[in-house]
Design a protein that fits this description.
This protein has 163 residues and is mainly alpha-helical. It has ten helices and no strands. Helix 3 packs antiparallel against helix 4 (55-71), helix 4 (55-71) runs parallel beside helix 7 (97-114) and helix 7 (97-114) packs parallel to helix 9.
Length: 163
């Protein structure tokens, strides 16, 4: 009986949270973990966001899924979700900076991998500009900029960005 009440309590708590709160909780507990639960929960959130026409949540889910597919080497799905996430980039930069930062970072990584370092740098600078109060995306972008300088053989500039 206790288990049944516990399940009902958890279900009730989930209905009390907004879609974005549930996405944020999923991100906190499983981003880059490789756990199938993360993928399943973000996919379910994307479906719900599409049904509700919640552009911000939808964009965030696409951004997270682009990261996921990049991490798991599925280039076709990586590009699909990155394209979907980038469609509303201007509209979500102010309302959800983390989503925009992820998209710009993934676009930068994609261009870096193609050898287009100037465009990659521009995307990484956009991460820094849109990240808002959140320092983590800024640090990631600075490390990625350091990689550009490393590829160019500019060790001193690379070390500046790493520090």
């Amino acid at each position: 009986m206790k288990g049944r009440n516990e399940n009902n309590r958890i279900a009730f708590e989930n209905t009390e949270k907004t879609l974005m709160q549930r996405i944020e909780e999923t991100v906190k507990n499983g981003r880059h973990s490789g756990k199938p639960e993360f993928f399943n929960e973000i996919s379910a959130a994307l479906k719900e966001a599409e049904e509700k026409n919640d552009i911000i949540s939808k964009n965030y889910c696409h951004a997270l899924l682009s990261e996921h597919y990049y991490d798991f080497f599925d280039e076709e799905l990586f590009r699909y979700h990155l394209l979907e996430a980038s469609r509303n980039l201007d509209g979500i930069s102010d309302s959800h900076p983390m989503s925009a930062a992820i998209v710009y970072n993934m676009m930068g990584i994609d261009e870096f991998n193609k050898g287009n370092l100037e465009l990659a740098l521009e995307y990484y600078m956009n991460v820094i500009n849109v990240a808002g109060k959140d320092e983590r995306p800024k640090y990631i972008a600075m490390l990625n900029i350091a990689c550009i300088h490393g590829r160019l053989g500019n060790v001193n500039r690379k070390l500046e960005f790493v520090k």
